[in-house]
Amino acid sequence: MMVGEVWQSCVRPSSVVRYSVMKFLKLIRPAEQRRVVTVLVLLVLLASVVNVPFAVTRLPAEGERPPNQTYLDRDQSSKRGWPSSTPHAQRWPAPTVWIRHGHLGYAELDVRSQTEDEESISMTVKHAGWPLPVVEWKTMRWDDSNAQWQGAEKLPRPRLLLRGLIGNPLIVGVSIWLVFFAIPLVGRLRERAEHASRDSERAT
Question: Going by C-beta distance under 8 Å and a sequence separation of 6 or more, which residues neighbour residue 105?
């Protein structure tokens, strides 16, 4: 088989599919197009409004800790690394203990490193948000007598995580839109396509 024939055999099915999809999309009425786009935008905006407030509601009560726990040994902890950025120019030693507590929309990570000279560095990170974390609280501990760790803040302000700030509204909004609007619309378009095909057959 010649190269040209192979290329045509590959291109032809994709062209047919593209033509079928375009023909299918033409069945969407202008009013439906506007409604579908409007609903999608509104759902994403609504999800963005409730994103951070919902994340805050996932925090456990003071003094409580979610029961679900994951414990990693020294080798696994070292591979996983620190759960958030470290504040010093000097690189922190690899973690030796990595513990996670969590439930839906919340994770508490207790990570620490015990060095050979018994000096301990630790970081507790709380992530809230669903399906992606959107707010982070961080507490760090180290020996203040060590000059290389001085000068950094141990309890920084909570910060918003960009991946959750952008990703959550898109994931939630688009998912709701697909289930309750896009899939039913596809069903209606299939019915129209079948009616149009039957009408075309009768006309011929």
Answer: 54, 55, 58, 128, 129, 130
